[in-house]
Amino acid sequence: MSAFELYSEAIQSDTIPPMNTFKKIAINSLVVCTASLFFLNASAAIPVQHWTHSNGAKIYLVESPGIAMVDVRVDLDAGSRRDPPGKSGLASATASMISLGVQASSHGPALDENALGEAWADLGASFGAGASADRMSFSLRSLTYPDLLPKAVDLAARLIAEPAFPAPLWQRNRERSVAGIKEANTRPGTIAGRAFAQAVYGAHPYGAEVTEASLAQISVADMQALHASRVAACRAVVSIVGAQTRAQADALVGQLLGKVNPLASMSALKADCSPWAAVPEVATLSTAKEERIP
User: Of 32, 83, 156, 188, which has fewest CB within 10 angstroms of its CB?
Assistant: First the structure.
């Protein structure tokens, strides 16, 4: 607890040295005003611009021109809560494979993980992909120099739109994941966390567990199908922080997502972006429960 919070609490509980009523009222008012000014200033200091790109992506921008750098994050409703029954871990597996290879296309030659590593090192930029319960995310960090940023965005665009999903690397990653699960199963924290998730979520997708069996059911074809159905520009939420104006950020998003399922018409765009089925609510727990696990 901060000194500010301790002092405020002390005033309310009368644990500070005695003072007259007017002094207490004055200090209480000062505390409230100071807190209000702090939050108002914090909000005012971070203006967030928001608009929708012509490709349907929702964009949030915080301009920070002090350093010639930009951080970009693309979020999609493709997290583990959307994993098919019996294939828990598909979203995470797909995300982990996206940055390991690019297919050959009209946009450029095929690139394996080594070539990609060298390309990112040459650009001084980085790209990452991951999945949580609710979303699949792609991240890009790059300097904004005109001889670097367009190349970094173009390479990230190819990774997002044209992942190779090399089967040998999935076999390697699956074996590593299985080894990690076996090791984690020896930890009390893992066992307790699993029991807690089952008690809270039950059969809800949030309670699904990634196991050796579920990983064994996941194929490269499953990843390709997930990518084709879930990764679309019109479903993306793009957050940008850095040395970019609104016009520059809009152009960046157009380049970054321009290779993803390009659509010829607005009617096709609307059809492709029809809402997904809602994930059911988690059932409310009615009674407390204590479980002891040897």
Answer: 188
- Tokens 């901060």: give the residue: 2
Residue 223: which of 286, 163, 280, 135 has the closest Cα? 163
Residue type, 210: V
The answer to whether the beta carbons of residues 150 and 158 sit under 8 Å apart is no
What does the alpha-carbon distance between residue 261 and residue 269 come to, in Å, rounded to a whole number?
10
Q: Report the largest interatomic distance among the alpha carbons of the chain, rounded to a whole angstrom.
A: 79
C-beta separation of 187 from 169 below 8 A: no
CA distances from 72 to 6, 82, 195, 245 (A): 39, 24, 36, 13
Find how far residue 88's CA is from the centre of its chain: 18
Whether 193 contacts 233, CB under 8 Å: no
Distance in angstroms (rounded) separating the CA atoms of residues 291 and 294:
10
In angstroms, the CA 112 to CA 283 distance is 45
Distance CA 44, CA 179 (A): 48
Record the tokens describing residue 174, joined without a space. 């699956």
CA dist 70 and 133 (Å) reads 26
pTM of the model: 0.80
Asked if 194 contacts 209 with a C-beta cutoff of 8 angstroms, the reply is yes
Q: Residue 46 — very low, low, confident or very high, per pLDDT cuts 50/70/90?
A: confident
Cβ atoms 133, 80 nearer than 8 A: yes
Cα→Cα distances 205→135, 138, 174, 209, 213, Å: 13, 22, 21, 9, 17
Distance CA 131, CA 75 (A): 9
pLDDT tens readout for residues 66-75: 999 999 999 9
